[in-house]
Amino acid sequence: MTTKSARGKGESFLSGLLRHQIVIPIAALLLLAIFNLIVDPSFFRITFGYNSAGNPVLKGYPITIIDYGTELAILAIGMTLVTAASGGQDISVGAAIAIAGSVILRILCGTGESTDGLQAPIIVAVLVACVVAMIFGAFNGALVAFFKIQPMVATLILFTAGRSIAAWINHNELPVTSDAGFKAFGNFLPGIPIPAPCFFAVGCFIVTWALLKFTNLGLYVQSVGINEKTSRLNGLNPEFIKLVTYVLLGLCVAVSGFIKVARLGTINYSVIAKDIEMDAILAVALGGNALGGGKFNMPASILGAYVIQFLTTTLYKFDVQSDALSAYKAIVVIVLVVLSAPTVREKLSTLVKKLRNTNQTVPSA
Amino acid sequence: MREGSVLEMHGIYKSFPGVKALQNVDFRLCAGEIHALMGENGAGKSTLIKVLTGVYQKDAGEIRIEGKGTVQIRSPQEAQRAGISTVYQEISLCPNLSVAENIFLGRGEEKLLSWRKMNQQAGKLLDSLGIRVKPTQQLASCSIAVQQMVAIARAVDMDCRVLILDEPTSSLDESEVAKLFQLMRDLKKRGVGIIFVTHFLDQVYDVCDKITVLRDGKLVGEYAIENLPRVELVSKMLGKELDDMADIKNDIPVFNEEKAAPVYEVKNLSSTEGIEPFDFYIRRGEVNGFTGLLGSGRSESVRAIFGADKVTGGEVRMDGKSVKITKPIEAMKNGIGYLAEDRKRDGIIGDLSVRENIILALQVKTGFFKPFSKAQQIKFADEYIKLLDVKTASVNTPIKSLSGGNQQKVILGRWLLTHPKYLILDEPTRGIDVGTKVDIQKLVLKLASEGMSVTFISSETDEMLRTCSRLIVMRDRKQVGELTGDQLTQNTIMNTIAGGEKE
Questions:
Q1: Superfamily (CATH) of domain B5-247
Q2: Rounded to whole angstroms, what are the CA distances from B374 to A108, B237, B355, B378, B396?
Q3: Which ipTM score applies to this complex?
Q4: Per the CB < 8 Å rule, is B308 touching A233?
Q5: CA dihedral sign, ordered B243, B245, B249, B254
Q6: Which of B283, B280, B281, B279 is nearest to B256 (CA)?
Q7: Same fold, B5-247 and B250-335+421-503
Q8: Domain boundaries of chain B, sorted by first residue
């Protein structure tokens, strides 16, 4: 047995920190926060007031970030699992959200005429949407696991067809509901000043945490993602595990879809959750997870999602034109992704080590 | 630099987080000598080679090359420019290009090239080295041995002064090894210094002039071959006297529970890998083995037993009860463990920690909803790290950063942790140093004496003779014989494998 050498301890703190995966999204969050603090400290102001319905609400950019980051954070959970197990990404989540949202509105609004009352309990609509989204997830998963199709190619099918399916579910009409009880789930619950989606986010985090803590999901998914053959010889069923990750992503999609439609009370098939798949993949990457599969860090992915939302909100605040938004986003993303690349991190940590060493030798010389 | 040296390394230090891989190592290579670099797994051989070839950066020390003085080697390209070439165990050429293309690829000496001239030059070079292969032949269609020699030819043609052969013989048969040695001797006459890394002692004494022994990252010494008998070499590598090894050799395995009931029994077992349906049984506390040439079907047989390949038929009984085993998980549930032949592909989960690799099989067997607590996992891992003397910085070190022998021990620990009734070990000692080999053999005998049944497969017959009390001989995917008791001699085994009628 070799013990940690003195050298190993010397490099420990800062460079050891850099090796830690979660440091990247945290650093990105801090950078964005510091930037905003310098340019306009009022960014962080949170005010208390009442909305038009007379509910107490908290307002301010930080609240917006946490509120609107919900869907992305939930998707990032499923995307992380899919990425880890199958070494590829599901690009159909945006389209699948459209389907889930469409299913919910179809059940709530009935046959298309917009009514004030709901035709069915919300919970029924949500459960049906969950089942539908999980079936589509299983479809993707089956293509990937059993037919060994590249995940991006396999999910391209639903990516292409999903929004049409969503429109078809409601006979191409745009159902609208103004039911306050339903819309509360996408905005504010009566009497609670914190946006309702935040509770969904927290709920999902707790479920995910419990799933990783009280089952072997994490170990199995990582084993399969790293070495399928070995996993099989150790009694795992790699195909089934991959399928399960896609089904779980389907569940995340259903929850996100529910929040999306609850925010507005309606749906626009071609716009809802547009490009969210790219943001979800990016969240996984920003969390420092290898997009080729294998080991993953769930909190890092979730933080990655909020980093993206932070960035988007910051850009909105500075009145960046909406069509220029993506360009700005791209620049920041390039920097973050390059910084989080393992080779760059390795270089950085050796650099830190060198700096430390010179600092230590100078006084003694 | 001393007279006659082509390469001198002085005071080389290299450490990785938690491990001091090299400490104050000196190495000297003379022109026209074949110099064996010996040591157990984790002794620092590979690290030293990688420092020399620029894959790793040394922490301290000096490398001098004849005629160039002190050199800094920061990348494999720089090593090549300094005249150091390496031929690895796994061929690092392009299999889909021709032999000549592989020899001249990436050397960029001329802007335009004439294919005719290139093939001519390659032909001349191969002739002069006595390598019988057409320059235009596609590399992938050559045998591994020829591919290796082509790699050497490429190195020689690049004016290499120092040629490193890292385990070149592991995948060669005897006649191929002989050819390779001939080539090495030719190169020696041309004044090339050759560093030869291998696990095979016979081969070292066949071709080498000098031996440098490393142990635990430190230099043990440099010896002329005639001054270092084998026994001493082994004891220097292990750092202990040889009583241990003698021990096991005198222990002829005796299995005297002939009446014990079979733990595992199968009739007409067949799989998709094309072995003849076969019958097989193993008794409690018995060690038996499958022997045969590579490709004879011995691995396929045990894979079928474990359900690793698709099982197409057979009646399995465990402890007399009829059971169904078509998938690894069913085998595991019935108390069978299987250590696969190809460690990298079928054994380790590279990025996961030693701890996770150890608990994996038991965890899967226990069930999805019953994960072990972290403390429990560490307890399991520590137990087997200690039992098998695994050298790792911590339980959380990724297994891929361990040396091969230590990885093997971790995988062995994984299966021991499941407390199998019946353990199948397919080539558990391949690519492992002598000390660990003996450890594993002893462990197998100990487990058997405690009542475990073990099937042991090895390419080294003497290893099987030392451990097994019954050998099943295979040829061309068929069982052709079963040897026990007095029949367990090298000769009988060879004859049975070869298919001679005489006993």
A1: P-loop containing nucleotide triphosphate hydrolases (3.40.50.300)
A2: 46, 37, 9, 6, 11
A3: 0.84
A4: yes
A5: positive
A6: B283
A7: yes
A8: 5-247, 250-335+421-503, 350-419
Closest residue of chain A to B329, computed from CA coordinates: A235
Predicted pLDDT at A155: 96
Which of B:8-27 have CB within 8 Å of A?
15, 17-20
Give residue A290's Cα distance to chain centre.
15
- Residue B308 contacts A, CB cutoff 8 Å: yes
What dihedral do alpha carbons B229, B391, B385, B235 form, nearest 10°? 10
The C-alpha of B269 sits at a distance from chain A's nearest C-alpha, in angstroms, of 19
Q: Do A216 and B19 touch (CB under 8 A)?
A: no
- Residues A311 and A69 sit within 8 Å (Cβ to Cβ): no
Written as six digits, the tokens of B489 are 């001699």
Residues A67, A72, A77: CA angle, nearest 5 degrees: 120
Q: Is the dihedral of CA A183, A187, A189, A190 positive or negative?
A: negative
Do the beta carbons of residue B245 and residue B442 sit within 8 Å? no
Instruction: Write down the domain spans for chain A.
Output: 42-319
> Which class for A47: exposed (0-12), middle (13-18), buried (19 or more C-beta within 10 A)?
exposed
Q: Establish if A5 touches chain B: CB-CB under 8 angstroms.
A: yes
Q: How far apart are CA B242 and CA B239, in angstroms?
A: 9
> H or E stretch including B321?
strand B321-323
Q: Which residue has the higher pLDDT, B116 or B92?
A: B116
Amino acid letter at A322?
S
User: How far off is chain A from B330, nearest CA to CA, in Å?
Assistant: 8
What is the structure's pLDDT at A24? 81
CA triple B61-B67-B72, angle to 5 deg:
35
CB contact under 8 A, A4 and B360: no
**In whole angstroms, what is the distance from residue B154 CA to residue B148 CA?**
10
Torsion angle of C-alpha atoms B351, B355, B358, B360, degrees rounded to 10: -70
Q: Does the beta carbon of B364 lie under 8 angstroms from any beta carbon of chain A?
A: yes
Question: What are the structure tokens assigned to A256, written together?
Answer: 């996100």
- Closest-CA distance, B352 to chain A, in angstroms, reads 8
Strands of the sheet with B278-283, listed across from one edge: B278-283, B262-271, B311-318, B321-323
Look at residue A329 in the predicted model and tell me its pLDDT: 80
Name the residue of chain B whose CA is nearest to A227's CA: B349
Contact list in B for residue A233 (CB cut-off 8 A) is: 306, 308, 328, 338, 340, 346
Q: How far is residue B1's CA from residue B3's CA, in Å, rounded to a whole number? A: 7
At residue A63, what are phi and psi to the nearest 5 degrees? Answer: -65, -40
Q: What is the mean pLDDT of chain A?
A: 87
What's the confidence (pLDDT) of residue A213?
A: 93
Enclosing H/E stretch for A58: strand A56-59
Give chain B's mean pLDDT: 85
Q: How far is CA A346 from CA A20, A281, A307, A342, in A?
A: 11, 23, 23, 6
Size of interface A-B (CB pairs under 8 A): 92
CATH architecture of B250-335+421-503: 3-Layer(aba) Sandwich (3.40)
pLDDT tens per residue across span B70-98: 888 888 888 888 888 888 766 678 888 88
In angstroms, rounded to a whole number, what is the distance separating the alpha carbons of residues A35 and B117? 63
Give B15's contacts in chain A (Cβ within 8 Å). 5, 7-8
Question: How far away is chain A from the Cα of B19, in angstroms, using its nearest Cα?
Answer: 6
Is the Cβ of B340 closer than 8 Å to some Cβ of chain A? yes
What is the structure's pLDDT at B495?
A: 76
CATH topology of domain A42-319: ABC transporter involved in vitamin B12 uptake, BtuC (1.10.3470)
Place of tokens 């599969």: A293
A14-33 pLDDT, tens per residue?
556 666 778 888 988 998 89
From the CA of A98, how many Å to the nearest CA of chain B? 33
pTM: 0.76
Q: What is the longest distance spanned by two Cα atoms in chain A? A: 84
